[in-house]
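Structure ticket #2291
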Amino acid sequence: MSPGRRPAAFFLGGRHLSEAASLVLLAPFLILLAIVFLLPLGTLIHESLLVPQPTLANYERVFVEPVYLRVMGRTARVAFYVTLVTLLLGYPLAWVMARSSGLRLGLLAAAVLLPLWTSVLVRTYAWMVLLQRNGLVNEWLQALGIVDAPVKLLYTEGAVVLAMSHVLLPFMVLPVYSALKGIPEDYPRAALMLGASPWSAFREVVWPLSLPGVASGSLMVFLLSLGFFVTPALIGGPQQMMIATLVSQQVRELLNWPFAGALVGVLLAFVLALTLAFNRFIRIERFVGTR
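Resolution: structure written out below.
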């Protein structure tokens, strides 16, 4: 073998060894994923299609009975509102973080990350205390003369959107911050030097370049909102039931596993379709640094 071909053979051998090592390293994760996610999910789908006999009646029931259509519509609507609220609140915060440094950046990052280390249940109960009829919000509204008597804030769709937005805000801020941080400061500065107003520089330069972060955060928040359970169940109550609460009700109270599996199957199909459409038109590879 000539000296020029020997390194290529070693390179190929090293590459195959690297792939094999990668599979070995990924094996525990893949096994855990199969046990805790794929197996239970497959069991539910099997129940919905084949128990007690092969049928599509459970899926037909989801789309025929109005009560379940309302639950699915409410779930999608709340997820959209939560995504919109987190974007409106998170983008300015990410903008300030991207242009901060030192202690100021550390304090802002702590304000974003600390809620992630607090139990969702604790934060949900905190909102219940704030929004109840004798809570702080009603007391402030009456003290300011805005209302004469306590108003119903708890167990409403607005309360669910507000509490879920608080929980999911970091999942919007972090991708947007990453995208804004990657924009060179020379770009908007050059637009200003060429005569653009600050708003025009933002609209024509910064906003388009930050869209990958916006899209990534929006998709993440929307998908997480679709399957949220604790906050809608406690803040919204039975009147604001979402699909995750409905699945829990079918399993724990009614013991109707086949219909619960059909609900899960419909939600899974919607999530997969949304993710594929997102990848088709926006391409997820842009958000992980590959082409």
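Closing remark: Residues 4-14, 287-291 have pLDDT under 50 and may be disordered.
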